[in-house]
Amino acid sequence: MSLWTSLEPASATVDPGSSTTVRLRLRNTGDVVDEYRFEPVGDIAPWTTVEPQTLRLYPGTTGSVELTFAPPRTPDATAGPNAYAVRILPTEHPEATTVPEGNLTITPFTEVRAELVPPTVKGRLRGRPKLAVDNLGNTKVTASVSGSDNGDQLSYDIHPSNVQIEPGRAAFVKATLKPRQIIWFGSKEERPYTFAVKRSGVTPLDVEGTYVQRSFLPGWLATCLGILLALAITFLTLWLAYQPKVVSATTELREAGVSTLPPSPSPSLSAPAPPTPTPPPVSSAPPQTEEPKSDGAGESGSGSGGGGGGSGGGDEEQPKKAPTAATAVRQLAASDPGGRHVCYRAFVKGKGWTSPECDGDTAGTVGQARPLTALNIAVSGVGGTASAAFVHNPGSTNGQGHYVEPWSGAPDGLDNYIGDSKKDAPAMLGFTINVDDGARGVCQSVHQKDRGWQNLACDKPGEGERYIFGGTLDNGIWLEAVKFTV
């Protein structure tokens, strides 16, 4: 070997978001002038720079280059020892390539973000918000979740109350809010509450939300009942005040010797009987309702130009609906009743919905710089699915997107939609998804703008509630295509 190398120091430590430098010394032990090129290799090579990148040495002379390590403050910078290496390529003797190795320890850091989905829930007897807890650090986080409010007006059922979150992953906590007192009548009331994400030795992270409690019976019903009660009281009062009094004078007439028989009518004194009042006529036909006019055929005036069977007839061909993910998954379930299947399609900005794909095929576009704004997913044989979209946030102040409400789900054989297919819908940056099968979960792979396909990732049954996050929190990196398997 015509080259001697030395790393000074051989082991180094660096904080994510900062940098550190290691010196690489080398000596040309050969007998000819040689030029050396340096290439970082290993998992931390993307964060390693070499200055200078080439070095020319005469025989017997020594030189040095500096290796600078600058891991980002993201979950990708895994905490702990990380091996690294530098490939040294001699120009004159390429067969004498040397790869000195060293060790770089990346210090751990924790960063947790929590968000309510949705921040405001409404209900008469209960509300069901979800709390999304994201681990933005490079080490596993263990936390507990509790709820509180002023005046102890709500009770909280939180599941799970304790979570463990891997770096770069998210956990979703379901909560049920129940008011301690029911509002029977009246206007709705807002009850602010707070979820606290607690970690050992760290100040709790508070997330505020609002529960809007509606009255059990609508306000207009209470008004109507009050009016009816007032009318009933008024009618009863008037009836009691003006009730006619019937007094019999038979006894008094007998005591006075007066006959109670009516006198015989006299032709000259008899008067005609008053006419019997005629009741107002009552119509037996039901009230007529106006027929809604159909578009373009509301009146039978000029313009039709002929007989009655022309345009607007019943034989006009109706447009055929495009198949959805549920259409495709039901066909698979019919041919394989005992199997597990997932079908999905993507809404591509500028192109619309793609055809349904199933069980690991690609939905979306690759290399066309067209973001996805919505997904349509359906499953069979796994007990249903639930998911939420993480989308671009134009008002972001930390360079990250945000979750949109609502969290949606569907049982086997039915369509589940997340995101938005409107013209001005924001691009999807990521998503969360799970299936209800307790034995096996769901796997996903995504194609991101400027990053290509990411590794296949699956949830882990048995480790808390099973949700998997696909994509990124970066506000400028959108999804272009997806693959799913169950």
Protein model, in words:
The structure is a single chain. The protein is mainly beta and 486 residues long. The chain folds into three domains: 3-106, Immunoglobulins (Immunoglobulin-like); 112-213, Sandwich (Immunoglobulin-like); 325-485, no CATH class. It is 8% helix and 40% strand. The protein contains three helices and 33 strands. The protein has helices at residues 219-241, 250-255, 325-335, and strands at 3-8, 11-14, 20-28, 34-41, 48-51, 54-57, 62-69, 80-90, 101-106, 112-117, 120-123, 130-135, 141-148, 154-159, 162-165, 170-179, 189-199, 202-213, 341-348, 352-353, 357-358, 363-364, 372-380, 385-391, 402-403, 408-410, 416-419, 428-435, 443-448, 452-453, 457-458, 468-471, 479-485. Strands 2-9-8-4-6 form a five-stranded mixed β-sheet, with no helix packed on it. A five-stranded mixed β-sheet has the order 11-18-17-13-15, with no helix packed on it. Strands 19, 20, 21, 23 and 27 form a five-stranded antiparallel β-sheet that branches. β19 (341-348) and β20 (352-353) form a beta hairpin. The radius of gyration is 40 Å and the shape is elongated. The two termini are 53 Å apart. The model is unreliable at 252-315 (pLDDT under 50).
